[in-house]
Amino acid sequence: MPQMGESIAEGTLSKWLKKVGDPVKRDEPLFEISTDKVDAEIPAPAAGVLAEIKVQEGQTVPVQTLVAVLETDAGAVTSKPATAAPAPTKQEPPKAAAPAPTPPPKAEPRPTSTPPAPRPEAPAPVRSGDGGGVQTAEQRLRTKSTPLVRKIAAEHSVDISGIPGSGYAGRVTKQDILGYIERAPTAPAPGPRPQPQGPGAIEHPAVEPWPGDRVEPWSKIRKITADHMVTSRRVSAHVASFFEVDFTRVAQLRAKAKQTYTERGVSLTFLAFIAKACAENLRKHPIVNAAVSGDSTIYRADVNIGIAVALDWGLIVPVIKHADELSLIGIARAINDLGERARTKKLLPDDIQRGTFTITNPGGFGPFAGIPIINQPQVAILGVGAIEKRAKVVTAADGTESIAIRTMGMLTMSYDHRVVDGADADKFLADVKQLLQEFPEGAV
After folding, report:
1. At a CB cut-off of 8 Å and minimum separation 6, what does 232 contact?
2. Disulfide: which of 26, 86, 208, 412 matches 99 by Cβ 3.0-4.6 Å?
3. Whose CA is closest to 197, among 185, 206, 188, 181?
């Protein structure tokens, strides 16, 4: 199980792409994993034959866990470390029988914060590290969580066991603890926990399936998205502004430059122009590029624009870092690259972190407009409606009016009214609109 980022301690093996006995080429996708951050395909480290699968689909295991055995072309087994795996439990030399297939009656050592190399069977009860009673493997997972989560909990004097977790077996993830801290009352109150907004679990009510219905459990990415959306509606005071934009000039510039961009391997879309216009104006309107922390506002130094990508298995938001420093072709190239890597499960955890503002583009599917939900902990998200030709009243330089065919589209921005006032949001949108309607030819 690979380490997909320094804060990630485990991964779920979501799908095997090869079967035992299948030949495998070096760097050919071998299996898919899902973590709290990202879904990804993992390539084979060498050419050979898949000799043995040790971790089944749906299992969640710590990073560096041996998941399979590859027999190389030379006939050697690449998993030699498998026999060496028990080595880390050196602490107990007398107990040579520890790795035996059946768990020892109750002489199992107390769990420490790092899981032991030979993994015990999930159902086996384990003594609680807190001194009381017996914990199941699921309870142990829940209270143990990852090193990063435990570090955050310690810094904020938070008891992890009291936080409803959205990870495997109810395990508390980084998003869970950050959401808990963000929603928790600022002054610590002794005694029973105060009820108002409390961090209660995000409950998705159970519904009875009818005969003939198909029940499909949520993927990890769908579960995280669902919890994130419900949390965002609960945390932020959502308000939306709608601006109609005349994209006729952008359409003309795009038609002229499209071939040149294609020759350079870049697809020039309306979204690239919109992202460029936002990047140029977020610096001028820092409140839209901010985040809320408790009762403070964080004005972000970087302009990092997230672009929502709809996938068959859920929604993900890769981030264009330092977007205000990129040219139009640089932004277009970044959108193409991140979108392609999201669809082929090649994103890295860093690709979806540190966003300061998000753009979602449902217009590609045809809606006139929509009201998106803010991507926490940001304070604003821009929704792009369908861009199409419509009849529009236009005013000539001499003041005469006529009806003309123009390329029009609707921009909707949801913003957090706790910190972004309507005037701030509308000034930002007005500047974005003006830039799009008067886009300089030299910037294309």
Report:
1. 373, 374, 375, 376
2. 86
3. 185
Give residue 167's pLDDT band: very low, low, confident or very high (50, 70, 90): low
pLDDT at 117 over 60: no
73: domain CATH number is 2.40.50.100
Q: Is 305 exposed, middle or buried (0-12, 13-18, 19+ CB in 10 A)?
A: buried
> DSSP H helical segments within 202-310, as ranges?
220-235, 248-263, 270-282
| Inter-residue contact 279 to 323 (CB < 8 Å) | yes
- Distances in whole angstroms, Cα of residue 122 to Cα of each of 31, 125, 131, 415: 22, 8, 20, 44
The helix (H) or strand (E) run that includes residue 412 is: strand 401-416
Same-domain pairing of 256 and 318: yes
Give CA angle at 321 (438, 283), nearest 5°: 45
**Is position 411 within any domain?**
yes
Which segment, 61-65, 361-365, 427-431, is predicted with the most confidence on average?
427-431
Q: How many domains are contained in the chain? A: 3
Q: Would you tell me how many other CB atoms lie within 10 Å of the CB of residue 255?
A: 10
**pLDDT over 50 (residue 85):** no
Of 268, 234, 252, 236, the residue nearest 358 (C-alpha)? 236
Other beta carbons within 10 angstroms of residue 179's beta carbon come to 24
Please name the residue ranges forming H helices in 236-372: 248-263, 270-282, 328-343
The H-or-E segment that residue 360 falls in is strand 357-360
Task: Look up residue 126 and give its DSSP letter.
Answer: E
Residue 308 lies in domain: 238-443
Write out the catalytic residue numbers.
417, 421
Distances (CA, A) of 308 to 264, 357, 373, 382, 432: 24, 11, 12, 10, 19
Overall average pLDDT of the 274-295 stretch:
96
402-405 long-range contacts, CB within 8 A, separation 24+: none
For residue 268, the SS3 value is coil
Q: CA 329 from chain center: how many Å?
A: 25
**If DSSP codes are grouped into helix, strand and coil, which group holds residue 319?**
strand
